[in-house]
Design brief:
This protein folds into two domains: 175 residues, Rossmann fold, CATH 3.40.50; 209 residues, 3-Layer(aba) Sandwich (Rossmann fold), CATH 3.40.50. Helix 1 crosses helix 9, helix 4 crosses helix 6 and helix 10 packs across helix 14. By secondary structure, it is α/β, with parallel strands linked by helices. The strands form five sheets. It has an eight-stranded mixed sheet, with helices on both faces. The relative contact order is 0.09.
Length: 400
């Protein structure tokens, strides 16, 4: 039995949602690793798991009621937060995230969190439309700004029969985040620069040249780097994703803006260029919307080549010691990727074959990790797993 957490006390808040059943396995894993686990079960959470089940696994009393005379004569909501080393909310429902964001304190769980002076990790779980709602994104930004950490959610089949992002992260992943928080911050003190998403090159005030990049891979890498202790600057094109917690995000639209933001973020210890930067931009942007004209052909759009951000950073006087690029290839993947390493003077390339698959927006990716001397096929896996493997490689590089 691993006792890595034997000196730690975890306060687990279980809110309402079908994913609450996963909290029972999380308790078992935390206990197996030596942690003492106390639990607060909300009224909604008790609709999915019973206090008896939670209490039996914790081997502790389960706390449910703010107005319990015994609990509050001992100032239970204060004591629970003060005696914990880490507070985990799993699952964290959309309703409870909103409560946290707005500082509500109408039950034991929300009151305890408002009084907490300990780090908080939350694992969202909800329907994908609730997750994608702007109200949820606004609440997440508030929680991230207060220094709270987030794990997940993941994409997959929902209990309601729909598919999308919103599934609570597996208990094993949450456990790993707990272990990483306490013991593994190997990139602490290092600055990581990450680019993600597409660029939009304006034709007129309405139209632009762009691509289908979702930014998910870059955002996953930024989150994994932060979890490993790095100070992360994320330069992001237009995407529909919440900012990763505790990451400095700079939003841009064009390739020129992205390059300027990258240069301003230097020096850095590493740069990971995942962004799908447009190769070309219109030479000039029309001041007004270009109108269709009857009996006339469509207007010709003169293009100019955009700056090559990866190559420019590789050649910069403040070049980060570790430069990592991404390459989408349709043929001769290894040959083209190694040629790109030579041409752009970068250190590593993560290449994916897009000849017969669509990867933009998918929760999975299939990449090949390629350096001047090595080639590893990482097979198809979730983008979060690719991010984790890449961070492991970066940690190995800095341990040399």
């Amino acid at each position: 039995m691993d006792k890595a957490l034997k000196t730690k006390t975890i306060l687990l808040v279980i809110t309402g949602g079908i994913a609450a059943y996963k909290s029972l396995e999380l308790i078992r894993l935390l206990r197996k690793n030596g942690a003492k686990v106390r639990a607060i079960l909300t009224k909604g959470g008790a609709q999915f798991v019973t206090p008896l089940s939670v209490s039996a696994l914790c081997e502790e009393e389960v706390f449910t009621d703010l107005w319990s005379l015994k609990d509050e004569t001992e100032m239970g909501h204060i004591r629970l937060s003060r005696e914990a080393d880490l507070i985990i909310i799993a699952p964290a429902s959309a309703d409870f995230l909103a409560k946290m964001a707005h500082g509500k304190a109408d039950d034991l769980a929300s009151t305890t969190l408002l009084a907490a002076n300990k780090p908080i990790l939350f694992a969202p779980a909800m329907n994908h439309k609730m997750w994608e709602n702007n109200a949820t994104h606004d609440n997440l930004q508030k929680l991230h700004a207060r220094g709270m950490s987030q794990i997940g959610p993941e994409e997959g089949d929902m209990a309601c029969g729909e598919y999308g992002p919103g599934r609570m992260s597996p208990p094993e992943s949450i456990l790993q985040s707990v272990l990483d928080y306490f013991y593994k911050r190997p990139l602490k003190g290092l600055h990581a620069l990450v680019t993600a998403g597409p660029t939009h090159e304006p034709i007129d005030p309405v139209r632009y040249i762009g691509n289908r990049s979702s930014g998910r891979q870059g955002y996953a890498i930024a989150a994994a780097l932060e979890l490993a202790g790095a100070h992360v600057t994320l330069i992001s094109g237009p995407v529909n994703l919440p900012a990763p917690p505790n990451v400095d995000v700079i939003y841009i639209e064009t390739a020129a803006q992205m390059l300027k933001a990258c240069k301003n973020a230097l020096p850095a210890d590493m740069a990971i260029c995942t962004a799908a930067v447009s190769d070309w931009a219109p030479q000039a942007q029309a001041k007004n919307k270009i109108k269709k004209q009857k009996d006339l052909p469509p207007p010709a759009i003169a293009l100019t080549e955009n700056p090559d951000i990866l190559q420019t950073l590789c050649m910069d006087k403040d070049r980060p010691p570790l430069m990592i690029g991404f390459a989408a290839e349709t043929n001769d993947l290894e040959k083209n990727a190694k040629a790109k390493i030579q041409r752009k003077k970068c250190d590593w390339i993560l290449a994916n074959d897009v000849s017969n698959q669509k990867v933009f927006g998918k929760p999975e990716n299939h990449v090949h990790f390629i350096t001047k001397h090595t080639h590893e096929d990482w097979k198809e896996c979730p983008k979060a797993e690719i991010a984790r493997r890449l961070v492991e490689k970066i940690i190995e590089y800095h341990d040399q």
